Amino acid sequence: MLRRPPTAIKLTTEDLLSYDDEKSNLQHEMNKLKENEREALSSNGSTRSHDGVNYQTQLHLSKDERIGITKR
Questions:
Q1: Which residues touch 70 (CB under 8 Å, ≥6 apart)?
Q2: Is 1 helix (H, G, I), strand (E, B) or coil?
Q3: Where do the record's region annotations for Disordered lie (predicted)?
Q4: How far apart are alpha carbons 6 and 52 in whole angstroms?
Q5: pLDDT digits (tens, 9 = 90+) for 41-72
Q6: Which of 13, 40, 47, 56 is packed most tightly, with the most Cβ within 10 A?
Q7: pTM higher than 0.70 for the full model?
């Protein structure tokens, strides 16, 4: 079996800042979703949203959309 030297990965400051920004944006989206869920639950006392769709399903679809999964 042939062996080759390990690949060196070089991270720049720009890479780290980009990662931190992406992580921060994701956290902001999650906080916003949680806040919207709390408002929906407090306004009508159930997990149904104003258009009759289950709010938990909306959260799940949003998560799938965020990570790039699409249903065909």
A1: 64
A2: coil
A3: 35-58
A4: 54
A5: 777 655 555 555 555 555 566 666 767 666 65
A6: 40
A7: no
